[in-house]
From TrEMBL:
Its main location: Golgi. One of its GO terms (biological process) is endoplasmic reticulum to Golgi vesicle-mediated transport. Belongs to the GOT1 family. It holds the Pfam family Got1. This is Probable GOT1 - Membrane protein required for ER to Golgi transport. It comes from Pseudozyma flocculosa. One of its GO terms (cellular component) is endoplasmic reticulum. Keywords: Golgi apparatus, Membrane, Transmembrane, Transmembrane helix. It is a multi-pass membrane protein. The chain crosses the membrane at residues 9-29, 35-56, 68-88. It is found in: Golgi apparatus membrane.
Amino acid sequence: MWLTDQQKIGVGLVSFGAFFLLVGIVLFFDAALLALGNVLFTAGITLLIGPQKTFYFFARKQKIRGTVCFFAGMFLVFCKWAVIGMLVEAFGFLNLFGDFFPVILNFLRQLPVIGNVLSLPYIRGFLDRLAGAGQRQSAV
């Protein structure tokens, strides 16, 4: 799979955004790091999939609640209400990207060491319920 230069920059921005969000949370919800992570993550998504697809992803009718919560949480983080903003943003993130969790879980189960751990009986059942794998129907 070949990526364009713009998509490579997008992957880097998403990675740095996730890193700064993680460090911001570890450092007791440092608002500056969280805000920087939000900006980098959002810019990276835009570069990765393109501006038009990004707009259509966030503007879909079934995703509007997640979009509003995600951007409202970003606004709260920018206003230095880091903990509340991250909670609202996490709710929006789960609503926006929750459909991808079963796909990610299936990918992780195919990895050599991690797949064995994720396939253990109790862990498998817990993660299946968490990802909602039984509730979604495949298009195929």
